[in-house]
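Follow-up to my earlier ticket, as requested here are the two runs.
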Amino acid sequence: MSLTDLLCRGAKPRAGRWKLSDGGGLQLWVQPNGTRFWHLAYRYQGAQKQLSLGPYPAVSLADARERRETARKLLREDIDPGGAKKKEKEDRNLPGDTFKEVAFEYVEKHRREGRASATLIKKEWLLDFAYPTLGSKRVSEIRPIDVLRVLQEPESRGCYETARRLKSTIGAVCRYAIATARAEMDPTSALRGALTTPTVKPRAAITEPKKFGGLLRAIDSFDGQPTTQAGLKLIAILFPRPGELRTAEWDEFDFETNIWTIPAPKTKMRREHKIYLPPQALDVLETLRPITGHRRLVFPGFLSADKPISENTLNGALRRLGYGQDEMTSHGFRASASTLLNESGKWSADAIERQLAHVESNNVRRAYARGTHWDERVRMMIWWADYLDQLRSTAIVSKLRKVSQR
């Protein structure tokens, strides 16, 4: 029975690949992931062959039939349609066939979308592992075993998380190739369970109130760069992601409304995020004005004022204060705030999650929970800054008591 557009559009994915036939060798193959491709089955010089005619619906039923007739005309002239297509492609020297070419396009797409530079650097770093083996291969010809050989190199060195992220990145490039009609399958989908699962280690963070108070006291006594000390104070009060703090610009701060607006391109979730500035945060910023207020960046680098401080600056300061990487990290201030705010019992989990700029993992709940809980978050940030002052004072009193008891 001949196909119709209605049948083609209604073809649902199954556990395995399956096909619909239109006659004359024309077939619509439906992949388990829902993508659909036209193929032409034919015989040439006694051998059974198959010719890809493109993805549906980018290539319509009418277009596929026209391409079938063109291929059959070549067969009547004793010309292999598949060979003719390959030669035409080589003659035109079409770009974008190889994994490296498609990967470059994929990274550039993310760059145009405003992805963070750190994210782009990580993608390029991971792809460098794949280029020696996969770079010159056409994406459509890459097999699961080819990808596995690439992944086994970092895995053999015990870099299980790197291997996992590399698999994900290679898969993303291959799916981009599918979307742009240069491949028909993602070879990484067949590697589920093939890699060693890395042990997830949460970032180190101090979540006990008394110890956190001691950390605040240590930050107050920091004798390094004043901008670094200010950065530690602000990350404790506002608990943004470290990258958002490092790249903060003065024009992001509205001192009339006391709001820091982090632009969407700088946030992990690519959504604008607002943070209320309690008085303690404003005081810290005021101490920075004479130092960096005449520049674009709040925390300019030490070697170049046009670049922010490095991602290791705050962690390095914590090490100087005596806190090892297994005790506290700059990212750990978020976990500290989350834990202590939740344990206080004063604030809703939704408000805390919005302040952390987290996205609800439950799709149904996310669809309905669209509020920002702003009023509660303002009260919470004021309470949190006052609470830190209380923890700091408690640490002082505790220290004085120990001295007096000696």
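Run two:
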Amino acid sequence: MKNNPLSLLKSEFAKNSLTLVSSSFIGQAIALLIYPLITRLFSQSDLGLYATWLSIVDVLTILSTGKYEESVMLGRDKREAAATARLAMRVNTVFSLAAVAVVAVIFALGKADYTVFLIPPMIFFCGTTRVYEALFNYAKAFGQMAFSNIANSVAAAVAKLAAGFAHLTNGTLPAGSLVGQMVGNINYRIALHRLQLPKTTWAEAKEMASLRRNFPLFSMPKGFVNSFSYNLPFILLAFYFDNAYIGLFSLAMTCTFRPVSFFSGAFHSVLYKNFSVRYRENQPLIPKTNKFIALNALVFIPVFVLGGVFANNIIALLFGSQWTACTPYLLMVLPWIFISHLTSSLSFLPSIFSTQRTDMILNIVLFVLRLTALIIGIVYADFALAIALFAIVSAAMSLITLGWYYSLARRFDKTL
């Protein structure tokens, strides 16, 4: 049948997706395979503090590149793509150096321990990795992207386990993540010459800054608000509840959101390239969108249902009975995570149609709703209530956003 979603499995999209998804699966498998050891080597409070540290890095990394790396895919040729990447790298370097000065002041004031100094280098390597990912995605070098993803996961796992077995548990989880990010980044840098990118000037980079100004003006604030609102439980609730609660919620998200986000990232990379080409060539988008949504529903919904039914037993078996207290949080977030996966995979559509302003407004609304949900939980001194309300408003807004993305594609198809 022409509209059979399974026909997508035979396409170039499927082959490229399989390459990235396979590496994502391997990388996530490595991370999850070591978690039964991590949960026995580190305490719930250790995981809570690590989750808060990682959340701060995630939020600041959004700002570090000005989101210019997202516009690399829109380059009409390699020269434009390379110039945009150069611009993103320069912005990332300046931001990371500024972060060093800020954390030095925070440490001097006695407001944080030494792990705060790991934040600027982590921001730098996360930012450069995003730029490299955009360049290699533009060049369809999906194999190298897969290899770097796996190298990152392996290096981080080895570093964390080595620290745990050596009983060096204070701040070593952040250090392990930094090691992994550096290794993945170095792999990209070594392979960069294979792309045969032209040498560009700073004048060309500044020209791209003007041409792609919607990305720092709208995509960056939208990404910042979205990342900050997602990480709110780890940052805000850490001031009002014990770190052990944050650690339990962190494990729930590790078992659900983290593996799914790898799939979302892989689909986003491949779909962005595919849809950008279809848009430039005036080809319809809705048929591909329908197939993507249908295929993901066929795969993910049964997996999520089974995972929810046996969640408590799985957690006890893998991580120890002391961690089964995270099961309620896991069940709360499952519906949101499925809808969010679809939305995240298609989140490039506002960039293609230059509707980033509306996208930013939707994310501001989401932030306000999430903040309100968490404040209610804080007022009632109920961590579970805060997480439940957080998941409900997140699922609702993800569904609304997905509907808007779909309407953008449909509106474009009607013009053909």
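The only thing I checked on run two: Residues 42-211 form one domain. Let me know what else you need.
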